[in-house]
Each structure stands twice: as structure tokens, then as C-alpha cells.
Write a structure and sequence with these properties.
The chain is of the alpha+beta class. Helix content is 26%, strand content 30%.
């Protein structure tokens, strides 16, 4: 079964962190865009019931603005950008965990995930310091969070965007002005 993840893609971060991700985050070289993980691993099998669950989850969340102005570190040499404020992203993660209890975050290894955008993994302190110093002047990064995206691996192990669901309710009728 292919790997999969529900994520917030952050296109605006690519010009700032893309080259570092390609060098220091193994999944970037496999096609994973700059993102904040909502739920990983997830189900790549989308039957109508699961699609309805994801659509309902996305519709229950109003689009919102976020910025990344701080660089953080996790144990193991993980360098990341911090979404601020992170309350809405944390709420999305919690809602996804509640909606899909059969897919605990990180296989159950992390019970309360911290929202972040990974720049690099397994970095030594000097490399993390250098990257941080190079990225810091290019912050903040601003983004509008308006879609939940399902990434899946294809037959060659590359990650692709399989599907996206807009956030917020959509009340457009066929007679509404466009």
C-alpha cells in the first residue's frame, strides 16, 4: 500500500527553503512540497465514505492566514519553520485525529504533534546554525491556508498530490452570480 499524508502545502515557502529541503530532507527529493503535516500516515484508499469524511473535515475549517517568522529545532537535528499562531493548525490536527482514529499521527509515536514545516533532518549544530542564518533574513513567509491536500506515493516511490479539498463551507448555488 502506498504511503500517504494529509497536509497543508505552503507554496510560498519553496523559494526560501526549497534548496535546503532538497539537500537535507529526504522526502523533498521524492517530490514532497514544503508543507505542514496534518496527519501521517494516512489512507491512500479513498472510498466514497472516506472522501465524505475528508470533505466534511475540510468544510468545517474556515480558511485562515498564517506566517512563518521563527525557526525551530526538534531533537535529532530537525530544523523547521514554526507556523504562527499555530492554534488553528493544532486544531486541524486534532480534528483529523478525531475523525480518523485508525490513523494515529506518526504511527502513534507522537501523540501531540507540533505543527511545523521541516527544512532539514539529522543536521549537526553547525549546519543548522548556518541554514538558520541564511533563512532568517527572508522571513516572515505569509500564506493563506485554504486547502487540505492528500499526498500519496506512486509506483516509483515519488510523492504526488492525489487530491485537494477546499477549506470552509461552499454555498454557491447554480443561480448565484459568478
Amino acid at each position: 500500500m502506498p504511503d500517504s499524508a494529509l497536509v497543508i502545502v505552503v507554496v510560498e515557502a519553496e523559494p526560501v527553503v526549497g534548496r535546503y529541503r532538497l539537500q537535507h530532507d529526504p522526502v523533498a527529493a521524492l517530490g514532497v512540497p514544503a508543507h505542514v503535516t496534518i496527519l501521517f500516515p494516512f489512507s491512500s484508499e479513498l472510498d466514497p465514505e472516506r472522501e465524505d469524511q475528508i470533505r466534511s473535515l475540510a468544510a468545517s475549517i474556515e480558511p485562515f492566514e498564517r506566517r512563518f517568522r521563527a525557526i525551530g529545532r526538534f531533537p535529532g537535528g530537525v530544523l523547521h519553520l514554526v507556523p504562527e499562531p499555530n492554534d488553528r493548525v493544532r486544531a486541524m490536527i486534532r480534528q483529523a485525529m478525531d475523525a480518523f482514529p485508525d490513523h494515529p499521527p506518526y504511527g502513534g509515536e507522537i501523540t501531540d504533534p507540533t505543527p511545523h514545516l521541516t527544512i532539514g533532518m539529522a543536521l549537526d549544530d553547525d549546519t543548522a546554525d548556518r541554514i538558520s542564518a541564511e533563512i532568517a533574513p527572508r522571513l516572515p513567509i505569509r500564506t493563506r491556508v485554504d486547502e487540505l491536500t492528500l499526498l500519496v506515493t506512486d509506483d516509483e516511490g515519488r510523492w504526488v498530490s492525489a487530491r485537494g479539498w477546499p477549506l470552509g463551507p461552499r454555498f454557491r448555488s447554480s443561480s448565484a452570480p459568478r
